Amino acid sequence: MPTPSQPRLNPLPALIFSSRWLQLPLYLGLIVAQGVYVFLFVKELWHLIQDVNNLSEQAIMLLVLGLIDVVMISNLLVMVIVGGYETFVSRLRLEGHPDQPEWLSHVNASVLKVKLAMAIIGISSIHLLKTFIEAGMVGGLPLCGTMEALDVARAYAAAGGDSARTCTTYSADGVLWQAVIHTIFIFSAVGIAWTDKLMQHTASKRQGVVKE
């Protein structure tokens, strides 16, 4: 049975609708960024393998957390590239493909926002955990850039030291604010999910009223 031909759009609506293809270079640029993260992952992994005999358990943990961080950011990029292209540019037509992502079959702008919010929370959690570990490793050291840190570095250099860490970039206020920001991310994700659920409930009620 022949399918009915699609109605032709007027020039102005056709131009406006075709403007969605302007997003294509943006998604291609994110693919390039994905390649950069692959290079960064291989570089960090090689560093871990090379120096494994000279690293402490905490240093290895920090490097592994860094690798996980790269993977999670890469996953976020995939969701933005695939989900964003499917939602805002054009269909990928992956129906029936064995590697089609499960979430892609019901993706829309609202679902994409919730998934991105959850991914950002996961990335923030990794960063916060790294901060807690590093802050514990360098506890008691002066803050880098202060006169106290400079005096400690000079004293250590005069004593013949050359590799120990003499200052830290982590302060109590910095760790506190990072924890506060992470909490804000969590509340934001909850707010987005609640708003999406509320909108779906409202749409369902409207459909019920129309059917009646």
UniProtKB/TrEMBL annotation:
Presence of keyword Transmembrane: yes
Topological relation to the membrane, as annotated: Multi-pass membrane protein
Q: Which residues cross the membrane?
A: 21-40, 60-85, 175-195
Its localization reads: Cell membrane
Q: Which keywords, in A-to-Z order, does the entry hold?
A: Cell membrane, Membrane, Transmembrane, Transmembrane helix
Q: Which family does it belong to?
A: Belongs to the UPF0114 family.
**HAMAP family assigned to the protein according to its UniProt record, in alphabetical order:** UPF0114
Q: Which NCBIfam families match?
A: HI0507
The name this protein carries in UniProt is UPF0114 protein QFW77_05670
Lineage of producing organism: Bacteria, Pseudomonadati, Pseudomonadota, Gammaproteobacteria, Lysobacterales
